[in-house]
Amino acid sequence: MPTNITIKGIPDDVYQKLKLQAEKHHRSVNSEVIMTLKSSLESKKHDPDILIDRARMLKKRAKGTLSMEEIQQAIDQGRT
What is the reported pTM? Predict the structure, then answer.
C-alpha cells in the first residue's frame, strides 16, 4: 500500500522547476515528485561485479599506452 509523506520547506526555485517538469510531462506535481524520486533512486543501483570487470578492462586497455614523458607533457599543458 502506498505511503503518504509531507515535504516541508521546499525552496521556491526548486518547486518552480518541479512544476515546469510536471507540466512538460503532463503530470501532477505529486506524480512528478514520485517519478523523480524513483528515477533518482534507481539510477544509483550498480552491480559491483560489472563495475569491477569494466575497471579491469579499462586498466588493461590503457596499460602502457603513454610514456611518463607524455603524461608529464599533458600535465604541464593543463597547467598553462
Answer: 0.53
